[in-house]
Design brief:
This protein has ten helices and 27 strands. The chain has 562 residues and is of the alpha+beta class. The chain has a ten-stranded antiparallel β-sheet, with helices on one face. A hairpin with a 2-residue loop joins strand 10 and strand 11. The two termini are 35 Å apart.
Length: 562
């Protein structure tokens, strides 16, 4: 729907087989709250909650250097020869430790630096109409003071959030991140990952984030940015411009930014720098819990999302980047108004030197241990659609594909975009095909068509059917089991045309899901418990219903052992 992202000293503090202090093994480990907690229990991972073995090899899609985490223990693949793969245990510390000596900022809602005890975030709540600012600390043992946070959440005025005003620098440099003036949109207490609190963005939060101080300086051709947590979408955030980070002084010369989807709504990660405002990579980020990083060297850029990697080769000019923004960039124009992040981050790291491959693996290993990430997961879900899957009208990214991760462990890729028509949905298929090249069960869910009839598109119903038929054909060719969600009864939606096309075989999904049939809870779009007042977009309750209904039809496919 249209609505109106030197040599480094390596510290390996901890030993294999040791669960880190502060490691949150499940959502049940943390105090309850009003928000959502993902992922599902480890047992809902198709048997991947175990140590790796010799048959976890190249035939299963693994590569040398891949990371595997189970129960707080981490291994990396030393060899993936078929039938005789060798996985070596890794010692792990905290995520920022792998970049020791070069970290210029590390902070968040978890302990990012080993041994850090002290302030983590300043949080604002409204209680009895008064602003109350509370500093939440990282406690001895490495966990956030969640008891104080729960007290503040319980006492807040109805309809308000706990908003993050400051993220303290755990590196000792004093480079605290401050919420952008007038755009305090980042929440805490709404989304947790394996029991860890997150700093959460979302479409309804609006554009905003944090200012990186000018004192944070990195070489333009030698830096590292890493996020620990999730992204609610690979390809959205109000017209598909989520920008995790901009480094440099916007409007004052050289800048660097990484973002997802771009104007083409293609679902891939993109990079913009002094040489080009938009270069596409081959990386599609997972929306399952994972660490994400991007780094620069004189020879180009590298990116990682879990065990997936991509690079952009080409000379990166020397120079400096000072300051910037986290969450959206501020270089004016549409980027300012549309650059909404979709991050749910437990922590962030910025370093003034690109780590070598071993150090990057340590970063991802530490993140996986601290956040109970399973980068070894091979089953994949791809969602292609519009705002009803991207999350229009929702805060903190809690769309139905995100919520569905409460039921099972798999790699999730939400490529949906607010406002997308079926021609634009076709443009998302290459990203799905890229995901499909991985080994493991693959399911694609397609849900769209309503936007075709709008004045901005003028796409007739017969072309809508052809476009969706082509999307289904290509997804099947890429090895996906394809589920098609029927259209709603919203005025203008091509429900009858799609139903007829399924009946006559023009549309041939493997699974048809109809949450909007007369006997279903989402049938009546004027039920404003389940739908927003526009009768077009599901409410937060409606998204929860969709997550449950879709999972009931496809969940077993994603829990098959690869």
């Amino acid at each position: 729907m249209k609505k109106k992202s030197l040599c480094l000293a390596v510290l390996t503090l901890g030993i294999t087989g040791h669960t880190l202090p502060g490691h949150a093994a499940s959502c049940a480990d943390a105090p309850g709250g009003s928000g959502v907690c993902i992922p599902a229990p480890d047992s809902r991972s198709g048997g991947m909650d175990r140590a790796p073995g010799p048959h976890d090899d190249t035939t299963k899609g693994y590569a040398t250097g891949d990371i595997w985490q189970a129960g707080g223990q981490v291994w990396q693949a030393a060899s993936v020869t078929a039938g005789s793969a060798r996985w070596e245990p890794m010692g792990v510390a905290r995520p920022a430790d792998a970049l020791a000596g070069h970290v210029v900022f590390a902070g968040g809602a978890v302990q990012m630096v080993s041994g850090y005890v002290g302030p983590a975030v300043d949080v604002e709540t409204v209680q009895g109409g008064r602003r109350v600012v509370t500093t939440l600390a990282i406690l001895p043992g490495g966990m956030l003071d969640q008891d104080t946070l729960r007290t503040r959440l319980a006492g807040r005025d109805a309809g308000t959030f706990a908003t993050v005003l400051r993220v303290y620098d755990q590196s000792g440099h004093g480079h605290h991140l401050l919420a952008t003036e007038g755009r305090h949109v980042v929440h805490i207490g709404e989304v947790r990952i394996a029991g860890n609190e997150t700093l959460s963005w979302g479409e309804e939060n609006g554009p905003g984030g944090f200012v990186i101080p000018a004192g944070v300086k990195v070489p333009a051709n030698d830096f590292f940015f890493g996020s620990v947590g999730t992204y609610a979408s690979s390809n959205s955030g109000y017209a598909a411009y989520p920008v995790p980070v901009l480094l440099g002084s916007a409007g004052r010369g050289r800048t660097f930014r990484v973002f997802f989807g771009s104007y083409s709504l293609d679902g891939f990660a993109h990079i913009g720098d002094a040489a080009s405002p938009d270069r596409r990579t081959d990386l599609v980020i997972t929306n399952a819990p994972a660490a994400f990083d991007v780094y620069a060297t004189p020879a180009g850029y590298g990116l990682h999302s879990g065990n997936a990697a991509a690079s952009l080769s080409g000379s990166v000019a020397a120079g400096g980047l000072a300051g910037g923004y986290v969450g959206f960039n501020m270089d004016g124009g549409p980027w300012f108004s549309q650059g909404r992040n979709t991050g749910q981050w437990s922590g962030l790291v910025i370093a003034d030197h690109a780590p070598d491959p071993a150090q990057r693996r340590l970063f991802h290993a530490a993140a996986a241990a601290a956040g109970n990430y399973m980068p070894q997961l091979r089953p994949a879900l791809v969602t292609i659609g519009d705002s009803r899957s991207e999350g229009y009208g929702l805060s903190d990214g809690r769309n139905w594909p995100y919520l569905m991760q409460q039921y099972g462990r798999y790699q999730s890729y939400d490529l949906a975009v607010s406002g997308a028509n079926t021609r634009q949905m076709l443009g998302m298929v290459p990203a799905a095909e890229a995901v499909g090249r991985g080994v493991g069960p693959k399911v694609a869910v397609v849900f769209g068509g309503y936007n075709d009839h709008l004045p901005s598109s003028h796409i007739p119903a017969d072309e809508t059917v052809r476009n969706i038929a082509e999307i289904i054909r290509r997804l099947k060719k890429a090895g996906f089991t394809v589920a098609l969600i029927d259209e709603t009864s919203t005025g203008g939606a091509p429900r009858a045309a799609l139903k007829a096309a399924i009946h006559d075989g023009t549309l041939a999904p493997d699974i048809e899901i109809d949450p909007f049939a007369p006997d279903q809870p989402l049938y009546n779009v004027e039920n404003h418990t389940n739908w927003l007042a526009d009768d077009t977009h599901p409410s937060q309750t409606g998204h929860a219903i969709l997550a449950s209904m879709v999972w009931d039809r496809i969940g077993r496919l994603l829990l098959e052992a690869p």
